[in-house]
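Notes from hallway chat w/ T.B., transcribed later so I don't forget. T.B. wanted the structure written out for a chain they're using in a teaching module, and asked if we could keep both sequence and structure tokens in one place. Agreed to drop them here.
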Amino acid sequence: MRTTAARLLACLLCTSLAVPVTVLATDVDGPNDCSRLIRDYGDAPEDTPCYPGVIGHFPSCLAPGAPGTREVSCPFASTPPLATGYVRHVSLATAPSYWLGCGPPTVGPMGIDSEADAKVNSTGALGSSCAPGVNVDCVENAFGMTFGQDECYGSSDAGLASPLAFAACAATSFTFKTYSCAATAHIAYLNVLVDWTHDGDWNDALQACDRCVPEWAVRNAVIDVPPGCFTQTTPTFFAGPTAGPAWMRVTISDAPVNDDFPWAGSATMAGGELTGARPRTTR
């Protein structure tokens, strides 16, 4: 796949966060991801609770969702939100695949599940809230809630082994894993979204910490994706001022994303999709 988005149920902006894994998923449709054509979706809550008492408006489900809000007190690249979109990543038959995460090397390259819609719910039930007949692969607990997900921390298809912890108003970065089927390194575009305001979207930019702190924390940063399994480090960005856990998404793709990416995802890209790797969303 030439696009990757990660569902990071991240501990965003908190000093610490424990997210116990209830059921650990893996790449449920098996290895040989280098030779398969795959379609993968980002999986954060859309039109369902994402925190206690807060409805998520993160772009995940194919069906358009209600728009999120936009709190902007400083310049921000994102456009005002309309109906919430989705993030769909597809592999190409003409180019080697790459993705977030590294599966066990003894069973062949793995890390991507092909799916018809986002695998996410806010109840821990089997079925996804996005579409009937689409089932989640694992369950994680966070914020006093239970979420059905596509991948969970530490599984063979996860880009992160465990939750992250960011210090408020501090320069920070984090590491994540990529896998590439190519024989040589190639360029990809990295995007990181963090819900610093905990309002259920990634549309905001705060004048805080003596600077502008956008929820689009890393925007179209160019990275090299080497062959095989590799540990990457994001560019430095500033964490927001409000302590507490939050949702984060990490995406790598062949092309830079549009200015509406925080709320539209890939819906306005050519073909409504990103080529390359996959999206990862985390709480």
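Follow-up for T.B.: DSSP finds one helix and 19 strands in the chain. Might be a good example for the class.
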